[in-house]
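Ticket #4471: structure export looks truncated?
Reporter: QA, pipeline team
Priority: medium

Steps to reproduce: submit the single chain below to the structure queue and open the exported record.
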Amino acid sequence: MRKVFLYTLISVLMMVSSCGLFYPPQFYTDIVNSGTGNSNTGSSIPSSSSSSSFSANLALNQPVYVSDTEATNTIAAYAVDGDYGSRWCSLPNYPAWIYVDLGSNYTITNVILYWEACASNTFYIEGSSNASIWSNIATGTGLANFDTNTLPIIPPAAYRYIRMTANGSLGTGGVSLYEFEVYGY
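Actual output as written to the record:
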């Protein structure tokens, strides 16, 4: 069942970024808590980095590389820092990509993307053992801004590098991720 969530603006406080309006994550309320499949789960941004029912986030605080960065306050490292209040935002040049070096090969089972105001309209997830030759392991479509994509990797496969490539944005600027999480063993 697809998660549905209600976006609730609690305060008039809003910040404007080149990716559009930015509403801090605490302004969203999750009203249904189930979801499966290679699609948007509709969950709100979690309040802590340990919200997933999967194993430990393998991407947490690992080296990360991007196609480009919008500004000094939206750098690549913010997509893997475990802080759902910081984010990476690309320039509006497509395809835009981000990849994380997990340090060694892991069997990847799930990738979770927590989008800010500029979700990707379509994207794909790739894995690599050498950051040169990439294999497509999942695809997705951003259905709404401030949404979450949970992508099971079927079958699970071993990779050291995991990359998300966005083909465009639902907003007016680049794509923007609060967190890029990778799970496996």
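Status: closed, not a bug. The export was complete when the record was re-opened. Leaving a note from the reviewer for reference: The mean pLDDT is 78.
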